């Protein structure tokens, strides 16, 4: 029997997968970036279905709000018409064969395992549980992550800034 | 109720799409798209498996939070590398970047 949530799950998954394919295969790089943002939105929808509302919020905030916009601006800065045809037929065929074999293998592994018999528990984790776990058990990870983020942003700024000599 | 297998299959298909992009594309920005898709597939798996645990715990969701932050750091660094490459070579085709070849 097909329930309401199953239909929503199928719609969101098909949307996510189709927009992910489109982001790699669209002719114009700009449309690719936009459909990548749509794919991130689909993943946020899957998070909502999995009762992880906080993560869906974070996904929209960081992926759709920050990363997609960053990619869009980079595409605007480096766009050229000659990249419309990307990849020759041989590498494309190789990639297609690899992807099909990989996905069929993953589906086969899932089928022969007992993942089909696992169902979700009814307990919904609140924001407070996540915060408690973060502060009490994983505070070191949080601090190291803050350092990593700071270093990466400093590195990105240092690389991207224009020196006085190399002005074109 | 949706069994865990379906989430596993969706994330596996997304992962395969990312691998396809990594193999077949030569434009650096498209390679970055493929990496982001792979990261998203991994995040879906984390959340799904943590939701389907017998004993509920927030650890899976926490690691997805950390993963999102790492993905943001990776995107910032990668995009600035692409910008610098474009400024130096006027091209971002990764097949043309052979300055470091011995």
Overview of this protein structure:
The complex is a heterodimer of chains A (168) and B (102). Chain A has three domains: 1-83, NADH-ubiquinone/plastoquinone oxidoreductase chain 6, subunit NuoJ (Four Helix Bundle (Hemerythrin (Met), subunit A), Up-down Bundle), CATH 1.20.120.1200; 87-118; 125-168. Helices cover 74% and strands 0% of the residues of chain A. Chain A is built from six helices and no strands. The longest helix of chain A is centred in the middle third of the chain and has 26 residues, at 53-78. Chain A starts with a helix and ends in an 8-residue tail after the last helix. The mean pLDDT of chain A is 87. By secondary structure, chain B is mostly helical. Chain B has one domain (4-89): Helix Hairpins (Orthogonal Bundle), CATH 1.10.287. Chain B has helices at residues 4-24, 28-51, 59-89. The model of chain B has no long low-confidence stretch (mean pLDDT 88). Classes of the chains: A mainly alpha (168), B mainly alpha (102). The interface between A and B is large, with 85 and 71 residues.
Search tags:
heterodimer; A: mainly alpha; Four Helix Bundle (Hemerythrin (Met), subunit A); globular; B: 102 residues; mainly alpha; Helix Hairpins; 3 helices; 75% helix; elongated
